[in-house]
Amino acid sequence: MTFKSNSDSHGLVCMSDASNKPDPKDSRCQHCHVVQWMGGTISMVSSKLPHASYSTPGNEYCALRWAAAKARRIRNLMEEIGLVSVINDPTKIYCDSNIAISWHKTGKISDGNQYLDLAYHQPREWEMDGSIKVLGVDTKDNVADIGSKPFGPEEVKLFLRVLRGKEEWRIKFPRATISLT
Questions:
Q1: Per-residue pLDDT tens for 133-177?
Q2: Sequence-ordered list of residues with C-beta below 8 angstroms from that of 155, at least 6 positions apart, any chain
Q3: How far is residue 164 CA from its own chain's centroid?
Q4: What is the DSSP string of the chain?
Q5: Which of 6, 33, 36, 79 could be bridged to 67 by S-S, CB 3.0 to 4.6 A?
Q6: Per-residue pLDDT at 22 exceeds 90
Q7: Are 18 and 60 in contact (CB under 8 A)?
């Protein structure tokens, strides 16, 4: 893992993703989130969601909550050790689902999210208090994609160097289709 003292253009940044391929035994899907700082990965979690969801946007929405919770824990750690400058701005959390972002930004209750546990709606409050900011990103820029579903040579080429801190993460494919971010 490589960290660079001159590579803090994004501050603390997080990417979140989920699949919609449920485990046949329990119907839960895989999700992943990656937190980076100073050009390197400081946290990466890839696991099954604790609950089954109704759809791809539902899974993405649930994954967004776990990513936001991790970002907040890391923000609390940064504050405790005196690195307050790292958390002056909201932590940007990137997601590649238009619908999950829309649910988050508007608070809309729909057929796809009405049965989700209350905890999955917390990131909306966290954005209102200024600790996080949810933004859209193209799937080809979403590093968390590598931990949420099977990957091949293209994903390794896109994401492995970024995960290891050998290449700086940046948005190469701007996403104009997400109007709420």
A1: 999 999 999 999 999 988 889 888 889 999 999 998 989 988 766
A2: 145, 146
A3: 17
A4: ----TT--TT-SEEEEEE-----TTT---EEEEEEEETTEEEEEEEEE-SS--SSHHHHHHHHHHHHHHHHHHHHHHHHHTT-GGGGSSPEEEEE--HHHHHHHHH----TTTTTS-GGGGHHHHHHHTTSEEEEE--GGG-GGGGGTS---HHHIIIIIHHHTTSS----SS--TT-TT-
A5: 33
A6: no
A7: yes
Amino acid in position 43: S
What does the block give as tokens for 173? 């494919």
Strand-pair category, 13-18 with 91-95: parallel
Structure tokens at 12: 């603390």
